[in-house]
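Feature request, filed as a ticket because there's no other form

It would be nice if the structure record came with a short human-readable summary line next to the tokens. Right now we just get the raw output. Example of a typical job, pasted below so the devs can see what we mean:
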Amino acid sequence: MSSPIVNSPNGEFNFAANSSPDVIGERCNVIERRAKAYFTKAEVTRCVEKQGSGDSKDNTSRAQWCTFINDVGSNLGLPQSTISTAQLLYNRFFLFQPTKDFASTKQQTDLCITCLFVSTKIEETYKKLKDILVAAYQVKHPEGPEINAESQVHLLREFVI
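Raw output as currently delivered:
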């Protein structure tokens, strides 16, 4: 039996016309990598101990930043599922990254904005990055001057992207 995949002269691979899908599936090596969606309590404890986080100060800080994510998401009119996904991404990030590396307010704000942006893509509630940046600015500075989407947002966008 001949190979179901034929190498053409221009370097592209074509499936032979007389091959059945079963034969093609047997011969193709598919590499799959799946992210682990859930962790056991022991795995979470091990990750927290490894990163050196988990004290009450870290927990309080993360709760405050999750509140910030909630406020920005509510300001944008995002559904709760999108906001919850952003909070999950934020907390999951710190399972693998030490909190001391992201201690500044600027870094935390950028991380929260990034988590919100990614969660809008995951949950298919598309928002432009500039809209998220403007909403985050309004939440952080409720009494501050109004900004438009093109002024300082361009500088913030560079940090997130």
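Something like this underneath would help us a lot:
The first helix runs from residue 21 to 27.
The chain has a mean pLDDT of 76.
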